[in-house]
Amino acid sequence: MAEAPGGRNRCSGIRLDTDNREFKGLTNEMDVLDYPLPRGVHAIPPEFLDTRPDAEVDEDIAHPKPVSSEKNVWFFWHTGYETMHPYTKRNVRAWHRRLSKRGWAVRVLDRAPGSPCNVANFLDVSDPRTFPRAFAEGTIRGPYAMQHVSDLVRWPLLLRYGGVYADVGLMQIGDLDRLWNETVADPASPFEVLSYNMNGGLANYFLASRPGNPFFERCHRLFLALWVGRTSTEGMHASPLLKGVPLMSISATIQEDGKTIGPEELQKMLSDYIAQGQATSMVMGLVDDEDGWDGPQYAADHIYAIDYMVGSQLINEFTGWDGKKAFELMSLPLPKRDGIESVEQKQAREIVEACLQRSFGFKLAHGLIIKVYKYTLGSLWRDHEGSDNVPGTYAHWLRHATAYWNQDELPPPLRFKVIEPFKRGPLLREE
Gene3D superfamilies, from UniProt (predicted)? Predict the structure, then answer.
């Protein structure tokens, strides 16, 4: 492989048909994308890639085969894969291209009537031990109703089938198959859960385990109890079942409907929005001697969680959560082979190289965070269709890497400390 200017390898990758933007397979060097391959990153051998056109990959995703192993990647989009935004479809296709030939099945479940991917084809939606009444009756309400519907399918899928649950907005960068094989799938490994360490809690946009995991089973039981009698998560942060769990931290102030919403109120709103994360934190901070559960010790011993900021938010850290800046940098074209690199191009290159070398994924932020930052890279990719997929740009370099490259090493876990319990006693006893 030739060495590029500046000491970065250039990789002859996969041919791109720029008229319809479908990957057509390997071809000669004149026809391939020529993006720099950072140190610590390698091109995946062709035999381990699905390089078929997008339409054929989409057909597989939209018509999933029966579950036959624990190596499942679960996504959810309420109205079905076909209706997803193009940029999130590209995220999901990249997971499939890299993982399907390693034995993983990538599925996007939905609640669309008659869909082969309907959650009801995989789980009993009428079972109160699996879903709350509001889910079964379709009465979940609020501005983030569909996010909460997706929250409710995560643990049931993992508990029954195992594998990975990821948000459609998560771009996978690191070697998931290797991490799975060396942790939760290895009987000699102490690790039973994979996720991101989010200031001592877990990020619910990436969760992984084998079926029947005892930690996720307790998280799910608590989450169901929090939903009893509810059609939204509004006010859920104040439930007696969550007493002792700190609110989600945020220090911003926003204007909404002519009113000022300060940090204290925003913390409550964010904690309701990510109520699933609050339930997770309670189980991690629970000691129940009657049930034989020590959450702080379990978290320290059995959860492999990657630092969420470096591991999944690095573009935001580089740009100070300035979505417009991130969008503008990622939209820039790379300099021509012998061209001069501008200051902005240098910054964009450093962002992409850092993500490819140091991050396990990148979470495109949406939802409540838009109230705080107005714009995110994800929201702008959504609003400017195709902007994430223009050949020759830094965005496309990153996209190409997530489909066809992999990291040489696994990310280290950010180990949890054994904390003082938030609660002692039965999981569902109100305090």
Answer: 3.90.550.20
